[in-house]
């Protein structure tokens, strides 16, 4: 069966990122109806450097829900903190098939506040 439109859009975004990445890891975002997930991936070695999501106990306790902008911003700050601890300060932002709007934008803003450069 053919790829879904969502898969094709994600592949198109990732293809454009490869051209500008110049060896930087990518900050990949996944958004579901109840949670948001982020991970910093080093594609050169195929390894996840840092990750965070609203499923984590410490975040769950401090958030009202995992599906709002406040939760996304908290995940962005947490993934930035963990990436910096792993020695990563510059990334490329991989929004996947999602528009850069709402929770995805809030996560990006939180990661920038946390010290990631993209």
UniProtKB/TrEMBL annotation:
InterPro entries: Ribosomal_L18, Ribosomal_uL18_bac-type, Ribosomal_uL18_bac/plant/anim
Coiled-coil annotated residue ranges, if any: none
CC per GO annotation: ribosome
Entry-linked Gene3D superfamilies: 3.30.420.100
Tagged with keyword rRNA-binding: yes
SUPFAM superfamilies (UniProt xref): Translational machinery components
CDD domains named among the record's database cross-references: Ribosomal_L18_L5e
Keyword terms: Ribonucleoprotein, Ribosomal protein, RNA-binding, rRNA-binding
Family: Belongs to the universal ribosomal protein uL18 family.
Its job: This is one of the proteins that bind and probably mediate the attachment of the 5S RNA into the large ribosomal subunit, where it forms part of the central protuberance.
Oligomeric and partner information: Part of the 50S ribosomal subunit; part of the 5S rRNA/L5/L18/L25 subcomplex. Contacts the 5S and 23S rRNAs.
Protein name: Large ribosomal subunit protein uL18
């Amino acid at each position: 069966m053919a790829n879904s439109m969502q898969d094709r859009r994600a592949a198109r975004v990732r293809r454009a990122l490869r051209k500008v990445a110049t060896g930087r890891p990518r900050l990949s975002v996944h958004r579901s109806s109840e949670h948001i997930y982020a991970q910093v991936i080093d594609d050169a070695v195929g390894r996840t450097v840092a990750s965070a999501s609203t499923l984590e106990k410490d975040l769950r306790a401090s958030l009202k829900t995992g599906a709002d902008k406040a939760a996304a911003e908290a995940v962005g700050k947490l993934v930035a903190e963990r990436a910096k601890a792993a020695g990563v300060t510059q990334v490329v932002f991989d929004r996947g098939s999602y528009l850069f709007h709402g929770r995805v934008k809030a996560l990006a803003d939180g990661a920038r506040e946390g010290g990631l450069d993209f």
